[in-house]
Amino acid sequence: MSDAEATTVREQLARLYAHNAWADARIAAALSAVTEPPADAVREFAHGVAAESIWLARIDGVPAVHAVWPAWSVREAQVEARRVHDGWERVLAGCVGEALVREVTYTNSSGETFTTPLVDILLHVALHGQYHRGKVNVALRAAGEAPAPSDYIFWVRGMPAARS
After folding, report:
1. Angular region, 114: left φ>0, alpha ψ -120 to 50, beta rest
2. Which of 31, 56, 100, 115 is deepest in the core (most CB within 10 A)?
3. Rounded mean pLDDT of 99-126?
4. Bridge-partner residues for 105, per DSSP?
5. Greatest CA span in the chain, whole angstroms?
6. Alpha-carbon distances, residue 55 vs 13, 97, 108, 121 (angstroms)
7. What are the contacts of 121-125 at 24+ separation with CB within 8 A?
8. CB 161: neighbour CB atoms within 10 A?
9. How many other CB atoms are there within 10 angstroms of residue 59's CB atom?
10. pLDDT tens-digit readout, 2-33
11. What percent of the chain has pLDDT over 90?
12. Contact yes or no for 30/157 (Cβ under 8 A)
């Protein structure tokens, strides 16, 4: 990958991760606004954040400090989300030239070892977070609560989504 290509990819990834931070903040706010948020919604949000933390640890080559499905409160997940988003900014800042395609070797929670290019991990993490935010919104709606639309296009437009 040329330096120019890496710069373009890094810039797009930075946009995805800025969206992720915005979307996680919207989800946390929606869950915090509910007197008793649905347990499955909180569990999904906590998992999404914990998974990001685990991926950061894998990229950094250090042991993960959180369970894949932690029993966190909304507040605990919100605090960890802020820390994790700072970590993604650090990782993306270091993605210069060939760094985006460097291979990361890690062991998953089932004990299997894999080697994956960093760019693919970064794309996976962004997509995985959006998937679990969607599940949070399904749980909120099922409980009769307002979902927190977190689609990328709403972030790009700088405006809230329709709630119908």
Report:
1. beta
2. 31
3. 95
4. 115
5. 51
6. 15, 21, 10, 8
7. 121/55, 121/58, 121/59, 122/13, 122/16, 122/17, 122/91, 122/92, 123/13, 123/16, 124/55, 125/51, 125/52, 125/55, 125/88
8. 15
9. 20
10. 666 666 888 999 999 999 999 999 999 999 99
11. 79
12. no
Q: Which amino acid is at 155?
A: W
Question: For position 9, what pLDDT does the model report?
Answer: 85
Query: What residue has token string 């693919």?
Result: 120
Location of structure tokens 């919207």: 26
The answer to whether 140 and 38 are in contact (CB under 8 A) is yes
Burial class, 79, CB count within 10 angstroms (exposed 0-12 / middle 13-18 / buried 19+)? middle
Residue with tokens 């210069």: 96
Token pair 């954040």 in the structure block, residue: 49
| Span between the terminal Cα atoms of the chain, in Å | 43
Given this structure, which CATH class describes domain 3-157?
mainly alpha
* Pairing, β 103-107 against β 113-117: antiparallel
- Between CA 164 and CA 149 the distance in angstroms is 11
Task: Identify the residue whose tokens are 């802020």.
Answer: 82
Domain positions in the chain:
3-157
Q: How far apart are CA 30 and CA 53, in angstroms?
A: 22
The single-letter code of the amino acid at 131 is: Y
